[in-house]
Each structure stands twice: as structure tokens, then as C-alpha cells.
Design a protein that fits this description.
Length: about 150
């Protein structure tokens, strides 16, 4: 059975925009590039042709992936909750540290730690799920076990 995919409404909209760009801008650009490369003649030695074919394969794979995610994803209903769940924005502080960190708990397809979006399947995301403000949560990370305190849940 396929794994369930979760998206926030914003994540779904972002994927719709990406799909629109892939279908209406990137695909026609690559088709033109391929047509020009074919017009150059001998395809065996034609680096432009092989590059365009490779890009086309990647593009078509990405289009299929995004279409599948949008077709099968469960959209997370965000909203106030006193417990950490998918869609929560959680502010935490590590024991012994001074600076707080804020993360959105999202599905794996939408995760991007640089943007503060962590998957509910990641060590920190999974450990926070189901806990409340004020709870201390132990997390096993590649660097060892850490203790996080939940400061705020939105």
C-alpha cells in the first residue's frame, strides 16, 4: 500500500504553481530545444540533443510525481490546537540553549528544513506530535539524544 501524503493548503498551491510552470513553460521550451537539436543532424554525436532528452526525461518524471502528489494528497486542516499535530507551527527550545526555533510540522512531500518546514516523520517532528505546550520531549538525533521544551503551538 502506498504511503499517505500530507500537504498544507499552501503546499498544495505551491505544487499547483510548479505544475503549471512545468506544463506551460518548461515543457514547450524543451520541445523547442529538442526540435532545434534534431535539425542539426547526426544525433549520435549531438550533445545538445542528448542533453535535451535527459532534461525531458527528468521533466516528465517531475510532472508525473507532482500530478500524483496533488491527486492523492490529504490536505491538512490547520487551526488552533493545544496539541502538536500535522499543520502545527511549534516553537521549541533545546535544553541548555538560549535561542528558540520555530517549525511548521508538514508532510514529507512538503518538508524543507531551510524554510522551517519539518516532516512529521523526521526525528524532531515525530517526537513532537501529540505533545502540549510546556512538555519536554526527548529526541534521538544522529548527534545523540536531545531534550526539547515546547514553548508555543499555533
Amino acid at each position: 500500500m502506498a504511503e499517505q501524503i500530507y500537504l498544507t493548503p499552501e503546499g498544495a498551491e505551491e505544487l499547483r504553481r510548479e505544475l503549471d510552470t512545468l506544463l506551460n513553460i518548461r515543457r514547450p521550451e524543451l520541445a523547442k530545444k529538442l526540435k532545434e537539436a534534431v535539425a542539426e543532424g547526426d544525433l549520435k554525436e549531438n550533445a545538445d540533443y542528448h542533453d535535451a532528452k535527459e532534461q525531458q526525461a527528468f521533466l516528465e518524471g517531475r510532472i508525473q510525481y507532482v500530478e500524483n502528489v496533488l491527486r492523492t494528497a490529504t490536505i491538512i486542516n490547520k487551526g488552533a490546537s493545544d496539541m502538536v499535530r500535522l499543520g502545527s507551527v511549534v516553537t521549541i527550545i533545546e535544553d541548555g540553549e538560549d535561542s528558540e526555533e520555530t517549525y511548521s510540522i508538514v508532510g514529507a512531500a512538503e518538508a524543507n528544513p531551510r524554510e522551517g518546514k519539518i516532516s512529521h516523520e523526521s526525528p524532531i517532528g515525530a517526537a513532537l506530535l501529540g505533545h502540549k505546550k510546556g512538555d519536554k520531549v526527548k529526541v534521538k538525533t544522529p548527534g545523540g539524544e536531545i531534550t526539547l521544551k515546547i514553548k508555543l503551538i499555533k
